[in-house]
Structures are given as structure tokens and as C-alpha cells.
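fyi for ur records
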Amino acid sequence: MYLLNDIVNLRSFKRANPGQVSCAGLGGVILEGKPGVGKSEMVIGLLQSKGLVKDQDYYMIPASMQPSEKRTLLLKAFHEGAVVVMDECNSASMMESLLNALLNGKTPDGKMPDTPGLPLLVRKIQSVWQDALRKVTHCRTA
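which gave:
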């Protein structure tokens, strides 16, 4: 929770001091866990506790959103310095180059944000295979 809080605070600092801290801090964080453990509630609760308003200061990108709509919303948020909360980033492989560029502080064509500050908070559902692999690895190392 502290890391999420720090990322949101850094966003505010970047917005208040444009050009001074463009490369400071993390560009995002991935929250991974099984469905129903409270990832969404934790992120949204933190954003709201900071006074951030949905569709103004932060945007939600559901897994069901079409790739073209995701791209448009990600670029909009990037240029606004808004927070993006994205569901199931592991289901959006075609977005990988865009996400990598934005997390590195530029659009894929090299443009800097109009307003700095985009932190990307993504929620990833832990796959059954990842869970099984962890169990196998744990058994082998024990």
C-alpha cells in the first residue's frame, strides 16, 4: 500500500514541478493476485482518498475495452498526466509496445506528455499456471 501511495504522491509532485522530475520514480506498478482478493478496491480507495476523481484524474480501462479504445484512452491519460487503472494487462499483448513507451515517458513516436505524471496501475489476474509453477518451484527448493 505504501508503494501505491508513494506513486500517487510522486504524480502530484511531477505535476506541480514539470520538467524537474520527469524521470523520477516508477512509471507504474502491477498488482497480481487471484480474483476477489481486493486489488480493485484497494487501488480505487487510495485514489479516492487522495481526492482524485474518476474520468478526470484517473481512468479505468476494463479488460473488455476494445484495443483501439484502450490506445486512445491511454494516450489521452498520458498527455493529461492522469492515473490509469488497467484490468488484466496480461490479456492485452498487442498493447505492449504502447505501454512500454508510455512507462518510459514518451509516446511510441517520441512525444513527451503535455502534462507529466502518468502512473499506470494495472491489475493482473494470477493465472492457474503461474500458481502451479510456484508450487512446483517451491516443492523443488524445499
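Helices lie at 2-16, 39-49, 67-80, 96-103, 128-141. thats all i got for now
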